[in-house]
C-alpha cells in the first residue's frame, strides 16, 4: 500500500474530533513530517487560527501578511524556510470544491521535500478538508476554531444557514462575505448547482437581531423546500411568500433576489422581490443590471411573482451582488456608496479572484463611512463567469 493511501485511510478512520492527531501521526510515519499544524480561517476571513485546545487557541496569523495567509489567499502551496536549518515549511491550502477552509502547515526536512512529496501533501490537504466538512456534523471543534470571538445568537443562526463562503466549478467561481461577521442580522446568500443550472438566492430580512435571523431562516428554508420539490423561480417565491405571510401576517417581510443560470448558455432567469442590487463588470466597463422590481416576500397574501430574462453572462464577466448595507452606506458628507464608490471598488478589485473581492469591497465600505457607524449589516457576493468550453 502506498503512503498516500495509508494517510488517507488514517483520516477516514479517525474520530471527528481527532482528524488532526491522526493526520499528524500518519504524516510523521509516512512522510517523516517534523511538525503538522492546521489553521482555520475565521468568520471575518482576516485571520487563521491554529486548531489546538479549545475554547482557546494559539496566537492567530494574519491572512494578509503571513506565508500561511498567502497560501490561503492565492490557493497555492507556499514553501518557506523552516524554523531550523535544513527544514522547509509547506503551507498547503485546505479547500473543498472552492470553499476555502484554512491552511495545513507541514515542516519537513529539506532533502525530503521534493516536488512529488509536496504534490501528495497538497492532495492530502484536500482530503483533510472533505473530512472536516463531514466531521462538522458530529463535532463543534472546527466550528469553534473559526471563531475569534463569540458569535451573537443571530449570527449563529445565519452562519448555519449558509452553503459556504466560496464555491467553484468549471463554469463559474463564487465568493461571498457577511459583515459584521460576528453580529450579522438578516442578510443571507444561498446557492445550489445541478448538472445544467446554478440557482443563486440573496436575501435581506427586515429588522434586527434574533427577529431578523428567524425571519431569514424561515425564508431560506421555504425557498429550499420549494427548490428541492422541483418548483421554478415563480413557485419558489410564491411558497416563501406564503410561508412568511402566514407567520407574520404582513408585519414583517424580506427582500430577495433569485437567479437561475443556465450553465451551458449563460442565460439568466431572475426574480427581483425588493432585492439586493447587481453590478456587472464586462471588458473594463461597470454597469448596474436593472430588474423589474416586485414586492418583497411576505408583504401581502398570495402575491403573484413573474420571473424575467436577463442578457446572458459571457465568459470573462464578473457580477457583484450587494445588500443595502453596502449599497446605501453613507460617507461623512452623506453621499451614498452606490453613487460612484461602488463602481470604483469593482474596478479596483478586478484583478483579485472572486473569493477575495467581497472582503476587499467591505473594507473599502468601512473606509468610505469613516467614523459613521453602520445601521445595517452588509453582504457582498462576487461571481466570475467562465462558461463551458464547448458552449456555442
TrEMBL record:
Domain PPM-type phosphatase: 169-385
Keyword Hydrolase attached: yes
A Pfam cross-reference name: SpoIIE
GO MF annotation terms: phosphatase activity
Full protein name: Serine phosphatase RsbU, regulator of sigma subunit
SUPFAM superfamilies: PP2C-like
Alphabetized UniProt keyword annotations: Hydrolase
Organism in which the protein naturally occurs: Streptomyces indicus
